[in-house]
Write a structure and sequence with these properties.
heterodimer, A: alpha/beta, Rossmann fold, 2 domains, 9-stranded mixed sheet, 4-stranded parallel sheet, 14 helices, globular, B: mainly alpha, two-stranded antiparallel sheet, 11 helices, 2 strands, about 5% strand
Chain lengths: ~475, ~290
Amino acid sequence: MKKQFLFGLLSLLLIIAVVFGACAKPAPTTPTTPTTPTTPTPTPPPLKTLKFGAIIAMNNAQGLQTKKWYDLYAKLVNDAGGWQIGNDKYEIQMVIYDTQASATTAKDELTRLVLQDGCKFVFGSTGAAAVDTTITEPNKVMIWGNDFTNASSDPKVQYYYTTGNFFTNALQYRIERDVAEKGIKSYVSVKPDSQMGRFIDNILNASWKLAAPDVKNLGTVFVDPSTVDFGPVATKVMSFNPDLADLNYLGFIPNTVPQTYRALADVGFKGIIFPGIMSPNDLANIVTMAGKDIVEGGEVFSQDPIGYQKDPRMLSFIDAYIKEYGKLEQDATSTLNAMFVLEDAINATQSVDVEVIKQYLDNSKKPIRGVMGWTELFARPDLKNFRTICGGWSHPIQKITDGKLVNFATATLKDQYLFSIISGNKLVDTYKAYWLQYGYPKFPDEEKGENVLNFSDLGITGQD
Amino acid sequence: MSVGLFFQLLANGIMSGGMYALVASGLTLTLGVVKVFNFAQGDFLMLGAYLTFTIVVTLGLPYPIAILAALVSMAILGALIFLGIIRRALNFGFFNSLLITVLLVTVIEQGSLLTFAGQARAIPPVFPGAMSIGEVAFSRGKLLVIGSSIAVLVALYYFMKLKIGKAMLASAENSDVATLQGINAKQIFWMTMAVGCGLSGIGGAIIAPVYGAYTMMGTMVFSRALLVLMVGGMGSMSGALIAGFLIGIVESFAFQFVGYLNLVVILVLVGILMFFRPGGLLGKPMPVPGE
């Protein structure tokens, strides 16, 4: 009864409002001078949507920052009015799912992106190309993955691309060379106990052999990603009595590098520690937990574009990140490398058709600028894959000086490429034959003065 | 294996075992009395660690205040969560309350990720550096962890001798009979939850100067605490203490000799123990939830 009364009252009030509105006299207007009728401005056509999917493990800083970079890219494009591709203008829609570092969840999310959301371009992966491609290949979806194994460069795989994969060893090589010159005689490798950890261990040990053949590999200590206390890890490293502990790639498991440093300090390790990747936050944590002495003089892979990046467009991205999020975090500054490579392909082809873009990418010989250095796709003739599908990227090396990371040198794109070929895998002849048939890759002129390796080191003239 | 290495491995094991025992004690208390399997037990440790960072580093307050704050705030949080959510879920059965705590894990961890942007935080060590006895190196920070963990567990032992502690044990034994004896079981339940979560919170504060604070630390410690629970026996505080140190020591020795397969070694040994002593070392038979 009460409800009916209220309904009736509301209806009556609505009717009264409409009636008053209809009956209301229009406000008097000032007469205007008649003007010449103008051609009505055509309404711009609505923007089309270009969907980019991404699967990211967002239970750590790197993942959270990766999402920020993708969101920022989409925002900047959309705020500028969209992306003109061919005859259409597109707004970017990022569809990002959190994998929580679970391979099962990652596979489910990838399936969702492809089958439910209809994404034709996906960034990130389950970590295993063998899994990703069961979803992306039949659906002809282009995926920019992070599988370091050869499965991602298998010639049978048509739509899988990586921007940081096989051709990323120059950094290690440079640092190893520096370290060998300090007179070390032995090292122990500390790596995550995972498929990628073992693969990386093989690659990096090969680079040690090339850079410092007299330095003995005493063994590898594999660390379970769920390790809480690193005391046993440090004790095991100490039991080998090495001159150096190589922690390269361990940093991909959050918080492991600072914990390992602290544990090594606790057991009195006096050798050199090579951390690989170290963010300013990691360094600050190590200094807090174990003091400055243990890190002083160490050389690390830098993810800091400040003071290194000079390109105005990339600097504008950095500024935009700082403006949007308050500060530049450095755990994921290379996130947009793949995006920029894809962007170049779309701009060059003026198409969003996967096959058209694929055709362009598979034959690209073009370094692409990123927020962190340069990226380029290369072929893998050693795997009989002559399409340019596998990436390398350049970035600075930093030295720890008085507890701070200071830019020191650059691992150039050319060094990354050439070193990865030279690094003890007997690939030089294979690549020489490939270059003769398909041509030599191009490298950024900007990095010329910083190259350590050249084609002339392989007996090839006229290509440097 | 040298004598020095033997004692070093033993020291490593005792140091990590103390941490496992602390978390497992809270878990076994909550499970034994309240009949709630708190999957978020480890996350209270994580919150305690981050709170310690905030108090010591951000606010610049002394470390003992952080310990007290972690204990009290996690106890209050645990009590509120019980009173607000878990108590109602218990009305619908054991598994409902279990699912609630699983959900809590997600909420707490995501909240931590949003607040701290996934960055690990280091807290200045209370006693920096290491000391050596012969060939054995002892981290001063870890010695503090051992000492503090044992102190907390001893304090817990004497707490359980108090009237309220006895009431908790009585409720764990049989809550209906305990009620008939005049014990307010409902009050005991939220108090137990508070104590359990407070234990994890203080555990986080104790280990924070050594391990720092990071989002996934709770889950990692919890996985070890589960093993401690199985080995020590559900509902046994002294079992949790013994098992914590045992698991830590086995983990340490196993890592030295089989590396990353140490967890496999632990699981095999736990399996063998379960075969001969299904209730764990000192476990007591527990009524099946719902009966």
